[in-house]
# Entry
Amino acid sequence: MITRKVLPRRTFLKGMGTAIALPFLDAMTPALASSRIPRQAPVRMGFVYVPNGMDIRHWNLDYEGKLGKLSRIMQPLEAHKEDILVLGNLTHNNGRALLDGPGDHGRCCGSYLTGIQPRKSAVDIKVGISMDQIVANQIGHETRFPSLELGMEDARQAGDCDSGYSCAYTNNLAWRSETQPLPPVLDPRALFERLFGADAGLTPEARAQRNRFRRSILDFVTDDARKLQTNLGPTDKRKLEEYLSSIREIERQIERAEKDNAQIDPQMERPYGVPADFAEHFKLMTDMLTVALQADLSRVFTFLVTREGTSRPYREIGIPDGHHPLTHHRNDPALMEKVSQINTYHVKQFAAWLDRLKSIKEGDSTLLDNSMIVYGAGLADGNRHNHEDLPTLIAGRGGNLITLGRRIEYRKETPMSNLFLTMMDRMGVHVEHFGDSTGRVDGLNLT
# Structure
């Protein structure tokens, strides 16, 4: 007779102001029922937004149906051809200059998840509630955080944001209301402490003083974890150990980044603990996001991979030029080549994250299987600033209900908002209309 005690899904390891949620464990399913009722992990929905459009020549595929040879920019996803769905001809009409607005970069980012044309006036910042927040408003009560907003750069810190209204749109994907954006967390330390600690509001000075005496957050919950492990089976013990190890490694990465920054220029004004290297910063943010999704801390997220209109250089791959100026290449082959390299570099980081998501088992599926993550941009060609046929793909099966490994080409000028309506359906949130939607998209095999 099986008599093991069922572990509540919302179990936390606790200690000294810290609460760490657990990943999806076998012990969270009733023993006798587990053989009769398939376990279902929650579905997660997210958006990874890259700035300044693409070198569309090396993004688009010239065929439909089963994925074969990938384009140059998508080559890093070769190992994930069965994990992605590439979509063509999705358009954001409200990203265009239909009205006087905050420029193409402000419009494309401000309208991306809202489907609404942003306004220009600095005293009248107004767009619309974003679709991620519509979902978060309905399902967010089931998790600690209704949604998570991540980013990697702020225009005001970069020094190339021309006005308040422009910054509001280029710096934010998520909008709680027509006038209230949800700024992304840029600093890995702040994100870590938001997820696992209660002191994210400390100033850098106060945090530095505390760090001289601090121990690892995991040290505070060691006793609780040790007691829990005595009641777990071998598979769950391994899962728990891997999960706690990943959190500790994130702590170590943050500490290393802080030390490196101090050695570069301790007087430099910059986000506390942000790695100088793009790939390291991306990995650190997605590592923490992975833990948050695995522990069901949130099921909705947005990730602004550097702000829209960024002029960030990429010296780590030999490109000292600013990204945004490069996209205005005027068909210069040398400049276009650098844009393609930056686009491919971004996809390479995304592909490495998918490796991690796919490695995490959740019952008979994986964390990637139980997610649907849109990767794309609010501009197509960064030189032309066009808003039709936006580069868009979905990674993950949305709970094993999306058929992947294909390219779908929709009718020209199909609103991106149609895709978002369909995704909201999958999250159990049903609305009749969103943004400039004209219906829902077909071909995703959502049931």
About this structure: The longest strand covers residues 406-415. Residues 31-38, 263-271 have pLDDT under 50 and may be disordered. Residues 234-264 form the longest helix (31 residues).
